[in-house]
Amino acid sequence: MSLTFKVHHQHVASEARSGTITLPSGTYQTPLFMPVGTQATVKTLSVEEINQVSEGIILGNTYHLWLQPGEALIEKHGGIRGFMNFGGGLLTDSGGYQVFSLSNRRVIKEEGVSFKHHKSGEALFLSPEKSIQIQEKLGADMIMSFDECPPFHADYAYMKASVERTSRWAKRGKDTHQRQDQTLFGIIQGGPHEDLRLKSLHDLKAIGFDAYAIGGLSVGESKEEMYRVLDFITPKMPEDKPRYLMGVGTPEDLIEAVERGVDMFDCVNPTRLARHGSAYTLDGRIPIKAALYKDDMRKLDPSCDCHVCQTYTRAYLRHLFKAEETLGPRLVSYHNLYFLKKLMDQMRRAIEENAFYEFKTAFFARYKP
Predict the structure, then answer these.
(1) Counting Cβ atoms within 10 Å, is residue 151 exposed (0-12), middle (13-18) or buried (19+)?
(2) Which are the catalytic amino acids?
(3) Whole-number pLDDT of residue 97
(4) Domains along the chain with CATH numbers
(5) What is the pTM of this model?
């Protein structure tokens, strides 16, 4: 096990907690948001900029890096860290979500999943063992078990069979895992069904993992359904291990999930939205390409102290997008990630001061999702 987790403060009136995760690369405060670096890069940003707008941990994508450039080349660089010259913490997903969301003509068997390359149509196969072997070569501090991520509203019989198979796959992945400098997460599935969520958690605890993730959320369900699942399962997860909610990253969801005891998050939203001209502000998201910002001399977010907001007007940022200049997505990506970093920092301080609900109330008094 390469991860040490410590809870420093438990909020008096909710499940929210602050703590630290210590990895070989450093110590990081929780709750934290991790930018997604799908192709060994957070889209449009340099490593120096990533360090400025993150807590120091980012994600790499096993599926995409396996297909291009391949894990062997990355291993020659000493792993993703050496490949992209990044000195912080790293987590890689298992590739499971991409297999089920991007690939064509999937065939799920006990051995693993046969599918077609999402672009070339090449026949591919990924198993729990192969996913772990690839992730070991990619060299992240934290890696994920290979799981199936079925649709949230799949019928009960299918979901039950999927949970049972995912548990068997988790055991096979753990048996394969060799690197002692990597922490392996188990992933809780089960869709909306409390009994299946509980079974998944119990199965994984029986196998024994050093950290646990909540999967199968933010996949089309309503926010009320997501929060209900978190209300049920998060308090039942081990208190002494980090709790990671996969693929969730809107400001409102981060606040609601932290309140329910989640420690770690990732999501492509802040950079994906930025590339389409959507920027987070304390008053909600604004579409910077809209005509009403053509002559707007204000900062992107008057409440933000990032260098983008301190340097450029909304009118200039709109101009960059209308002129199709790449600097526009770069600057808004920087700002959006900085916005979430600052949000997490504010939540940590509110937890430690037992003022989380006061913070939440003040935030939502302005922010309109």
Answers:
(1) middle
(2) 93, 266
(3) 81
(4) 4-267 (3.20.20.105), 274-369 (no CATH)
(5) 0.96
